[in-house]
Structures are given as C-alpha cells and as structure tokens.
C-alpha cells in the first residue's frame, strides 16, 4: 500500500534544516531555562511558596523534554509510518532508538503529570471538602503511581517491534518517494500496528486532562462557596482567582505547542499523508515549547516579572 508521498527534496525536508533549527532553538532556550529555574528557586515570594517546588518539578521536566527532543535525539520521522532515525547526540553513542523513544515520550508524559501536580497542589491548599481528608492520605501515592505508569506503558512496545529488515522494506514500499539517502540510513521501525500505542498514549492524555479539569473545577467551586459564605475576604478570594487564572494561562499557552505534533500526527496517519518538510517544521516548533513555557511563567506572574526587570541593566 502506497501513501500520499511528497518527495523530500526541498530544504525544509532536509536533515540540515532540522538539525540547524533545533540547535539554534536549543542554544537560545538553555540560558532561558537556567534563568527560569534561578527565578523560581531564588525569587519566588513567600506568597507563592506553596507552588515553588511544583514549579521546579515542572520546569525540570520541561527542560528534560526539550533537550531530549531538540538536542539528544532530534527525530527525523517518516510519518505516517512509525519509523525514522535520529540526528541528535545520542545517535552517535550506539544507544538503541527504542530507549530514545522512551526518553522523549516519557519526559513528555512527565510534563503532563507535572502540570497535573501543579493544579492538584492548588486544590490541596485551597479546598477543604469533607472528603478531602481521604485524598490527603493517598495524594503522594497517586502522583508516584502516575510517574511509574508513564514509564511502564512503554515496556510492551519493546516486544512489539517488528523484524527490522522486513519492516524497512514495507516502509520503503509504502513511501516510494523517499530519496536514496534516506533509504541508505538505518531506519528504525517502532511498530507496524499502531493500536496499542494510540490507545495507551491517548488514554494517558485523556486521563491526565480529565484530572486537570477535575482539580480546576473543584478549586473554582470551592472558591465560589467561600465567596458566598464570606468565610474569606473578597480581596483574598480575588487574589486566589487571579492566581488560578494565571496558572491556567501559564499551562495552556505552551500546552498548545504540545498539541501541534499530535494534531499533525493524527492527520498524517488518518489520511496516509507523508510530507517530510511539514514533519520537520512540526518538530522544530515543538522544541520551542520550553522557551515559550518559561517566558509565559515569568511574564504571567508579577513577582517573577519584577525579578526579571530588576536583573536587567538600567538604561544609561
């Protein structure tokens, strides 16, 4: 079966574009990541101390994800086939590509879990439902379970990998427009049947987003209850609402970049469409996730924004 195959002959479809763009983005992002981590650790005011280490945890996983994608692996994917090869630093170490998949996808999953942890943290601090005492006993186990499952989901994939040579021939037959250069590269095929991968990763995403929605809804509901009962001053409630909105914006803006590759992947698979130029641009855009996430965090929260401006040199 042949797919809609656009010959990968333009610059955007080349290895040179993918490596150059990701290296430039990584070179810009790393100092920003370090700056963001410094501001969280040393410029977080007491009023935000309850979310400090949740922010640190999230920031570290974002840093790991960005660098695993845009520096360590740099995947040259051949969607709609679950195949490709890597151009990053790890490609020169002899490490099996399967473990690179686990590194990238696992760190991406942990970014989602860390976002969940931020909103769960707000829920735990603000809400005081009658049933919350039971939740307090299991919340740490709940979080650890998520991190463990994020890795265990990838173990069955190891045993689903097909015979490399036979699978490679099927990929090349399905994508007849591939250049001789790509055909000469040791292409890695993760699977020929997407079923488990889509169900496992899709379920993880759905459950994660559902839990985020649950914690946000519970927090908003409890704030409204406090407002009606006048158990908390209106000024304090306004601050809580303002901070919750800031958190939602902080997570939603960079979260949009996490959705871009998912949308393109689904489109490519659904319509059997191969376009290496589009695929490379999607990967390059994805590596800006951490850069945008850090800037959003700094500028959406007033104390961090002030701390950044104080670090800038004064105009002469």
UniProtKB/TrEMBL annotation:
The keyword Transcription regulation does not apply. This is Serpentine Receptor, class H. It comes from Caenorhabditis brenneri (Nematode worm). It comes from the Eukaryota. The chain crosses the membrane at residues 20-41, 53-78, 98-119, 140-161, 198-224, 244-269, 281-300. Keywords: Membrane, Transmembrane, Transmembrane helix.
């Amino acid at each position: 079966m042949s797919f809609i195959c656009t010959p990968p002959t333009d610059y955007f479809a080349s290895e040179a574009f993918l490596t150059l763009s990701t290296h430039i983005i990584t070179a810009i992002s790393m100092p920003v990541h370090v700056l963001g981590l410094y501001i969280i650790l040393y410029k977080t005011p007491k009023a935000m101390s309850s979310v400090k280490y949740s922010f640190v945890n999230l920031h570290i996983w974002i840093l790991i994800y960005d660098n695993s994608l845009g520096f360590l692996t740099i995947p040259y994917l051949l969607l709609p086939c679950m195949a490709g090869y890597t151009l990053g630093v790890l490609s020169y170490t002899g490490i099996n590509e399967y473990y690179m998949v686990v590194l990238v996808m696992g760190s991406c999953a942990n970014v989602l879990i860390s976002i969940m942890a931020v909103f769960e943290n707000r829920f735990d601090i603000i809400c005081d439902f009658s049933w919350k005492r039971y939740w307090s006993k299991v919340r740490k186990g709940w979080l650890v379970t998520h991190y463990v499952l994020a890795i265990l989901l990838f173990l069955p994939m190891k045993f689903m990998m097909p015979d490399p040579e036979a699978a490679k021939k099927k990929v090349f037959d399905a994508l007849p427009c591939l250049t001789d250069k790509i055909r000469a590269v040791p292409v890695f095929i993760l699977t020929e049947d997407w079923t488990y991968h889509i169900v496992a990763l899709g379920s993880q995403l759905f459950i994660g987003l559902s839990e985020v929605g649950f914690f946000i809804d519970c927090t908003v509901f409890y704030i409204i209850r406090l407002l009606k009962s006048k158990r908390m001053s209106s000024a304090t409630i306004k601050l809580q609402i303002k901070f919750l909105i800031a958190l939602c914006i902080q997570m939603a803006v960079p979260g949009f970049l996490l959705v871009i590759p998912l949308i393109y992947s689904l489109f490519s698979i659904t319509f059997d469409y191969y376009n290496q130029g589009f695929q490379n641009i999607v990967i390059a855009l994805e590596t800006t996730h951490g850069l945008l996430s850090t800037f959003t965090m700094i500028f959406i929260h007033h104390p961090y924004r002030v701390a950044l401006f104080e670090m800038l040199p004064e105009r002469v």
